[in-house]
Predict the structure.
Amino acid sequence: GERRNREEKMARPRRSSSTTPHDEAPKAQQITWGKHISTARGPEAILALLENHGHRFDARNLATAAHRLGKFGRMQRDRRFQLLADMCRRRTSDFHPQAIANTVWGFAKMDFVDRQLFDALAVEAPRRIGEFKS
């Protein structure tokens, strides 16, 4: 009865906050997408990948997409910038210091301000202060 239920609960793997979300793609796919993002010759390739698969990106690929888009500088507004900002905002608790820095830099270089994203990153950064490198 009750003891058996308790034992079954304990036998189930626990999901901690550090585990990957259930809809996040496997690591091998993340690596493939990361390579595509990093080698894209223009913003359209990144934005198309984001639109089609961004909902399955890990925090690193979201930050890399923001950073890489920033490297292209200020560009014509695209609705997918907001899509990226929304995805990043939902994952800020998974962002390590480098991801925080890359995301802020990328959006700043694109001259795209999303106050909710920046507020969320401003909350997360102090939590990670001990992890930042000089």
User: Anything to note?
Assistant: Residues 74 and 97 are 24 Å apart (CA to CA). Confidence is low (pLDDT under 50) at residues 3-19. The radius of gyration is 17 Å.
